[in-house]
UniProtKB/TrEMBL annotation:
Top-rank taxon, per record: Eukaryota
Lineage of the organism: Eukaryota, Metazoa, Chordata, Craniata, Vertebrata
Keywords: Cytoplasm
Homology family: Belongs to the dienelactone hydrolase family.
Protein known as: Carboxymethylenebutenolidase homolog
A GO molecular-function descriptor: hydrolase activity
Principal subcellular localization: cytoplasm
Regions crossing the membrane: none
Coiled coil: none
Subcellular location: Cytoplasm, Cytosol
Entry's Gene Ontology cellular component terms: cytosol
Pfam families reported for this sequence: DLH
Domain Dienelactone hydrolase: 30-245
Length: 245
């Protein structure tokens, strides 16, 4: 587990120098980043950010990647105007900060986004992906939201929902072997509980040598040894979405 002075479940990793191809829009009571493919489609993916918020270039990079694979991608501000975590913040205040940003209380925002996608974009099939804090939110949504078809949880903090495993929809779980905040024994236990309780398709995959945040926080051009696993994680994510959407 993380040490007490740095209780954050997200390594900072590399902040991409990336501007984004989409646009920011108002969706009900929240703002969102939306990117659409050139050809019309009735499929969309909701992207749930990590603790660094909806404007993080890394997350928009992944959203745009989904768009190049034929999906409408939308990354809403699930903190609803509250400040995202900053690397310069005092880690001692992290738990208090987190109390007002519960990954298990994203339903109101998701409902607004679903309505927007259906009414404004003509979408019929919707999946969800999320990173760390957002990965935990994905697990929450896969347990209860009937309107989503599938989900990909990338290094979602298992301890947030460790006693709930009756998923409604096919879910893919991505973890790094060397993740300091999500020990492998937690991942093993998750697999055991899913095997006992889950009646839909799921997969739990551990990527060798990878740390927390590797799919969206590591740049393959400056981490050559990680490049195959970064690319594999992204490809696996797309393949899972393609299979169920």
């Amino acid at each position: 587990m993380a040490n007490e002075s740095r209780p954050c479940p997200c390594d900072i990793g590399d902040r991409f120098d990336y501007g984004g191809r989409g646009q920011e829009v108002q969706v009900g009571h929240i703002k969102a980043y939306v990117c659409k493919p050139p050809a019309s489609t009735d499929k969309a993916v909701i992207v749930i950010h990590d603790i660094f918020g909806w404007q993080l270039p890394n997350t928009r990079y992944i959203a745009d990647m989904l768009t190049t694979n034929g999906y409408i991608a939308i990354c809403p501000d699930f903190f609803v105007g509250q400040e995202a975590w900053k690397p310069s913040n005092d880690w001692a205040s992290f738990n208090d900060w987190l109390k007002t940003r519960d990954a298990g209380k994203t339903d109101k925002e998701v409902d607004v986004v679903l309505k927007y996608l259906k009414d404004q974009c003509g979408v019929k099939k919707i999946g969800v992906i999320g990173f760390c804090w957002g990965g935990a939110a994905v697990q929450h949504l896969m347990l209860k939201n009937p309107h989503l078809k599938t989900g990909v949880s990338l290094y979602g903090v298992i301890s947030r929902f460790e006693d709930k495993h009756s998923l409604l929809h096919p879910t893919f779980f991505i973890f790094g072997e060397k993740d300091d905040i999500i020990p492998l024994e937690q991942v093993t236990l998750l697999e055991q509980k899913l095997k006992q309780n889950c009646k839909v398709d799921y997969e739990v995959k551990i990527y060798p040598g990878q740390t927390h945040g590797f799919v969206h926080r590591k740049r393959e051009d400056i981490n050559p040894q990680d490049k195959p696993y970064i690319e594999e994680g992204r490809k696996d994510m797309i393949n899972w979405l393609n299979k169920y959407l």
